[in-house]
Amino acid sequence: MPTITFEQPNGTATDVEVAEGGNIMRAAVANNIAGIVGECGGQAMCATCHVYVNPEDAAGLPEPSEDEDEMLDCTTAERTEHSRLGCQVSLGGALQSIRVAVPSDQV
Asked: Taking the model in full, what pTM does it have?
């Protein structure tokens, strides 16, 4: 089962298992991970599931879609080259684990 490691701004980390095809935002909300809101329910319309993907993991991800790229310009916390919307990153197949850092601010 794929695993997501959520790292909080204070350095604490929580591992969450997710079903094949599950995304970072839904896993975070279902497991009460602080700092991930998912206000729009996963439609890439709010940027409240912004995460920083570990650089080693980011290399294996597809490029953000045009919609995701536009929403990443609207994040409360600074956008970096490793910023992604959690609702747009699904696990499964070759991606069995990922480590993400939760920004200090989402809204």
From this structure: 0.93
Q: What is the pLDDT of residues 2-55, one digit of tens each?
A: 999 999 999 999 999 999 999 999 999 999 999 999 999 989 999 999 999 999
Residue linked to tokens 């080259």 = 81
Q: Do 1 and 21 meet the contact criterion of CB atoms below 8 Å apart?
A: no
User: For the chain, how far is it from start to end, CA to CA, in angstroms?
Assistant: 31
53's tokens? 């993907």
Catalogue the E-assigned strands of 35-96.
Answer: 50-53, 83-85
Buried b (16+ CB within 10 A) or exposed e, 35-60: bbbbebebebebbbbbbbbbeebbee
Query: For the chain, what's the residue count?
Result: 107
d(CA 75, CA 84): 10
Of 16, 13, 21, 19, which is closest to residue 3 (Cα–Cα)? 16
